[in-house]
Design brief:
Blueprint lengths: L7 E2 L4 E6 L2 E6 L1 H7 L2 E5 L6 E2 L4 E7 L3 E5 L4 E6 L2 H4 L3 H4 L8 E5 L11 H8 L1
């Protein structure tokens, strides 16, 4: 299971990459593996400010639909439009090409509650 050390994680299996006051968010390798073949990603919250742990979209696999939760509070700036035509990018490359949204972080303190790679490994083991 691929768990990059340079990212932060949530108990809901999202990853977060902080770049200044922007957070890039996706789902982990573990999550995409558990979901199976991803067929659709819906995010209709671009331009909205959401609180930490609010739902920002959904991800649909062949067998199930799962909510996607905000790991930090902030404004959803951008949705990865590549996912509209090729949602299975998440299965192939969840940490790079398969990112889902970019968020302008409202409070950097939100990131302090995120899991390290080591803590996330313990969670899924």
């Amino acid at each position: 299971m691929n768990i990059p050390e340079n990212l932060k994680y949530t108990k809901d299996h999202e990853w977060v990459k902080i770049e200044g006051d922007t957070a890039i968010i996706g789902i982990t390798d573990f999550a995409q593996h558990e979901l199976g073949d991803i067929v659709f990603v819906e995010v209709d919250t671009v331009g909205e400010s959401l609180d930490k742990e609010e739902t920002f979209g959904t991800i649909e696999a062949v067998k199930t639909v799962s909510d996607l939760f905000m790991p930090v509070s902030g404004e959803v700036l951008e949705f990865n439009e590549e996912l509209e035509s090729t949602p299975d990018i998440i299965n192939k490359d969840p940490y790079n090409e398969g990112w889902i949204i970019k968020v302008k972080v409202a409070d950097v303190a939100d990131t302090e509650g995120l899991l390290t790679a080591e803590a996330y490994k313990e969670l899924i083991d």
